[in-house]
Write a structure and sequence with these properties.
The chain is α/β, with parallel strands linked by helices. It contains 9 helices and 7 strands. The chain has one domain (57-250): 3-Layer(aba) Sandwich (Glycerol-3-phosphate (1)-acyltransferase), CATH 3.40.1130. Helix 5 (107-113) links the parallel strand 3 (93-98) and strand 4 (117-119). Helix 6 (125-140) packs across helix 7 and helix 7 (164-174) crosses helix 8. The protein is globular and about 50 Å long.
Length: 251
C-alpha cells in the first residue's frame, strides 16, 4: 500500500511540476516575487500531497528564532523535501544547487531568473570568488541564503562530515547570522528511493549563531547544534511510526 500511495504521490509531484512550470512561464518576465510565489504554491501543494496521499505531516518548530533580513540558513539534508521547505518559511531564499541543474528545462530557467547560486565543485579560485561575490550581492538584497553543510543527502541516523570550506566561506563573505536547522525528514521521504512512509516530518530552527567566528568555531557550533537536535527528532519520528533504531538499521 505504501508503494502504491508513493507512486500516486510521485505522479502528483512531477505532474504539478510540469503543469506549473508551463503556467508560470510568463512570470519569467515579471518581478522575481512572482516566481517566488509560484514556487511557494508548488511547495504547499507538495506538502498537501504528502499528507493526503502518503499520510506524512510536516511540522515547523522554532520559526520565531529566524532573524529578519539576510541570514545563512544551514540545514540538515536528508531528502529532496528539504530543498522546498525554505520557500515555506523564508521570505526570499537563495538555494545553492549543482551547476548541472542549470541545464534542466523549467528548473534551470527558473533558477537563473531567481538568481540561485550554481556551485561548480571543480571550479578554480576565480570561479569560487565569483560565486561568493554573487552570494554577497543576494545578501545585500535582503535575501536568505540556504546551504546544506553536509553537501549532499544522507539517510537518517547517519552523521556525515560537515564541509567546512564552503559553509565557512559563505559565512565569512556574507557576514550574517548562521541559523542551524535540524530535521528527521529522511524517516518519511528517503534520500534515495520512491517509498514515502507515513509519519511526521519536523523541521526545527535552532538558536542563531552570531557572525564573526573562525572556521573551526563555526563548524563546531553547527555540528553540536544540528546533530543532537536531529537525533532527538529521529527518536520522536520513529516513535510516531512505531519503529526503533534497530528497524532503521535493518532497513
Amino acid at each position: 500500500m505504501s508503494l502504491l500511495r508513493s507512486l500516486v504521490f510521485l505522479i502528483w509531484m512531477y505532474g504539478l511540476l510540469f503543469i506549473m512550470g508551463l503556467l508560470w512561464l510568463p512570470a519569467l518576465f515579471l518581478p522575481r516575487a512572482a516566481l517566488v510565489s509560484g514556487i511557494r504554491v508548488y511547495a504547499r501543494l507538495i506538502r498537501w500531497g504528502l499528507r493526503m496521499i502518503c499520510g506524512v505531516r510536516t511540522e515547523f518548530r522554532g520559526l520565531e528564532k529566524l532573524p529578519p533580513g539576510p541570514i545563512l540558513y544551514a540545514a540538515k539534508h536528508q531528502c529532496m523535501w528539504d530543498v522546498f521547505v525554505p520557500f515555506l518559511i523564508l521570505q526570499d531564499p537563495v538555494i545553492t544547487m549543482k551547476r548541472e541543474l542549470i541545464w534542466y528545462p523549467f528548473l534551470g530557467w527558473y533558477a537563473l531568473r531567481l538568481k540561485m547560486i550554481a556551485i561548480d565543485r571543480g571550479g578554480s579560485a576565480k570561479t569560487v570568488k565569483k560565486m561568493l561575490n554573487a552570494a554577497q550581492e543576494r545578501a545585500r538584497e535582503g535575501r536568505q541564503f540556504v546551504i546544506f553543510p553536509e553537501g549532499t543527502r544522507h539517510p537518517p541516523g547517519i552523521t556525515a562530515g560537515y564541509f567546512a570550506a564552503g559553509t565557512s566561506a559563505f559565512y565569512k563573505k556574507l557576514g550574517v547570522q548562521c541559523v542551524p536547522v535540524a530535521t528527521n525528514s529522511g524517516l518519511c521521504w528517503p534520500a534515495r528511493g520512491i517509498v514515502r512512509k507515513p509519519g511526521t516530518i519536523v523541521f526545527e530552527v535552532l538558536d542563531p549563531i552570531e557572525p564573526g567566528l573562525d572556521r573551526r568555531a563555526l563548524m563546531s557550533r553547527l555540528e553540536t547544534a544540528i546533530e543532537p537536535a536531529s537525533a532527538a527528532l529521529l527518536e520522536e519520528g520513529l516513535a510516531v511510526q512505531g519503529r526503533t533504531r534497530e528497524d532503521l538499521e535493518l532497513a
